[in-house]
Each structure stands twice: as structure tokens, then as C-alpha cells.
Design goal:
The protein is mainly alpha-helical. It folds into two domains: 155 residues, Lysozyme (Orthogonal Bundle), CATH 1.10.530; 55 residues. It is 52% helix and 2% strand. It has a two-stranded antiparallel sheet. Helix 1 packs across helix 5, helix 2 crosses helix 6 and helix 7 packs antiparallel against helix 8. The longest helix is centred in the C-terminal third of the chain and has 30 residues. It is elongated, with a radius of gyration of 30 Å. The two termini are 56 Å apart.
């Protein structure tokens, strides 16, 4: 087959793949899954959509009704709707039809495959920079059902994405945060001022005393000085790590 990368919602799914950082071969398998699960349309569908009076049929025949298969990946069972809803901050339990919205279904397909929502198996368990186990990757979605046939489709999508240059440019590196010299760092300056003030106040208090009280106060002054040094050291550590 020669995949059409503009069929249905293919571009929306590819956009989600790029946002999630999927490798080219991983994106190929995601598209192959969507193509297979939606009867080659790459548009969200409902389980048993081809049946006459489909909703009545689902209600009578599906033990997991109303959380039957929906979307690009046919999300099924209440627990999976609840988990996907929690991850996406959406109420998919009382409103399962929200899965039919393309932008929601695309996130479920991509993130669910990447993180192992459906079976506990993750896309990265089978498809990496070093390998493209397209047949084994079916376990991410649904055991081994039609695994060999979907693997052929995924291989074709991988070739199509390679021809399109998917991922060739790579992400634009983020410039490191500029750091202020410690002498100009506001937090370091504040620490020095606070420490000096504390020590100065302690010394002034000691001078006003005599005898045993002065000795005790001197010990306290030393403790204050050591504390100030410790705080300054921690602030310098933070600066060295790139924090202001």
C-alpha cells in the first residue's frame, strides 16, 4: 500500500506525534493503528458503527456499555475512560462521546500508546532508534490481533514519513538561561546583607554585656556567624546550578 499522509485526520495525529516527541517509526505505527482501527478512514469511529440501529445493538450486546470502543484507537471499558480522563483532565466517564472529538482522540492514541495506557505495554518497548518491531508493537493496543497485517501497514507508513522528512530537522535546542555573576546575584547579595546584619547585631549585643553573660553571648554570636556562612554557601551552590 502507499499511505496517504493527508487522509482524514492524519495531519492532526502527526502534529500530536511531534508534540509528544515520537520517533518516525513510532509515529508510523501510531498512524497504522489509526488506519486499521477506523476502517481505513483515520477518523474517529464508534464500535459496531456498521450495524443498523447501532446504539440499541451496543446497549444489548456490549457488557461494557456505554464505555464501548470510540476514537482512533477504540478506547474501551470504564476504567480506561476514567484513566484517560484523569490524564487529560477531562470527564470521559460521564461523557464518553467526548472521545469522538478528533483533538481528544489524537491525544489518547498518541499519549496512550507512548505511556502504555491500554495494555501496560509501551510503544518504546518495541519501537526505538535501534529497532522497529512493528509486529510485536500490537501488544501495546490489543494483544496480537491482526499484528502481522498492521505491521505491513506500519512499514509502509514509515517509508512515507521518511520520504516526507519527518523528524529530520529535530527539535530546536533551547538556549540555556543566562546566569548572573555571584557578585551581582540578588539572592547572594541578599544573603550577604542578611548575614552581615545578623553578625553585626550579635556583636553589638555582646559588647553591652560583661562576665559570664558575655561569654555565653559570644558563643551565640559564633553560632549566628556559622549559620550565615552556611546559608551563603547554599545560595552559591544554587547559583552554580544555574539558579538566581
Amino acid at each position: 500500500m502507499k499511505p496517504n499522509l493527508h487522509l482524514g485526520d492524519s495531519q492532526l495525529i502527526l502534529k500530536e506525534c511531534k508534540l509528544a516527541g515520537l520517533l518516525r517509526n513510532q509515529a508510523a505505527y501510531v498512524l497504522a493503528t489509526a488506519w486499521w482501527e477506523t476502517a481505513h478512514t483515520i477518523e474517529p469511529v464508534k464500535e459496531a458503527y456498521w450495524v443498523n440501529n447501532a446504539e440499541d445493538w451496543r446497549k444489548k450486546n456490549l457488557r461494557y456499555y456505554p464505555w464501548y470502543g470510540r476514537g482512533y484507537v477504540q478506547l474501551t471499558w470504564q476504567r480506561n475512560y476514567a484513566h484517560a480522563g484523569e490524564e487529560l483532565n477531562l470527564d470521559l466517564t460521564t461523557n464518553p462521546d467526548a472521545v469522538m472529538r478528533p483533538e481528544v482522540s489524537a491525544k489518547i492514541l498518541v499519549t496512550g500508546s507512548l505511556e502504555g495506557w491500554f495494555t501496560g505495554r509501551k510503544l518504546g518497548d518495541y519501537i526505538t532508534l535501534q529497532k522497529s518491531d512493528f509486529k510485536g508493537a500490537r501488544r501495546v493496543i490489543n494483544g496480537t490481533d491482526k499484528a502481522a497485517k498492521i505491521a505491513v501497514v506500519a512499514k509502509a507508513y514509515d517509508a512515507a514519513l521518511k520520504a516526507e522528512g519527518y523528524g529530520a530537522a529535530g527539535p530546536t535546542p533551547t538556549a540555556p538561561k543566562a546566569r548572573t555573576h555571584p557578585a551581582k546575584s540578588k539572592t547572594v547579595q541578599a544573603s550577604i546583607v542578611q548575614g552581615a546584619s545578623a553578625v553585626g547585631g550579635a556583636v553589638g549585643a555582646v559588647q553591652a554585656l560583661d562576665g559570664t553573660a558575655q561569654i555565653i553571648a559570644m558563643v551565640g554570636c559564633i553560632v549566628v556567624a556559622l549559620t550565615a556562612i552556611f546559608i551563603l554557601r547554599e545560595r552559591l551552590k544554587s547559583w552554580a546550578a544555574g539558579w538566581e
